[in-house]
Amino acid sequence: MTPQRKSSLLWGVVGALAFLVLVQGYRLLLGPLGPGLFALGGVAVLVGATSAGLTYALEPRVRGNKRS
């Protein structure tokens, strides 16, 4: 596995977990949400896949800027 792919997958995991933390915080502070557990899990997978894909696509551009 290339370092770029590994990095993007880890960012995808971070994105999915961050979404789930936000959902739990909402439930603790304001009460239950309308969607069920499986729907929120699906959204978390979608958020993770999106963040992984964007990270994979944009990493060469960011690396080319010499700012990171």
UniProtKB/TrEMBL annotation:
Pfam families: DUF7981 (PF25938). Residues 1-67 form the DUF7981 domain. The chain crosses the membrane at residues 35-58. InterPro entries: DUF7981 (IPR058287). It comes from the Archaea. Keywords: Membrane, Transmembrane, Transmembrane helix. This is DUF7981 domain-containing protein. It comes from Haloplanus litoreus.
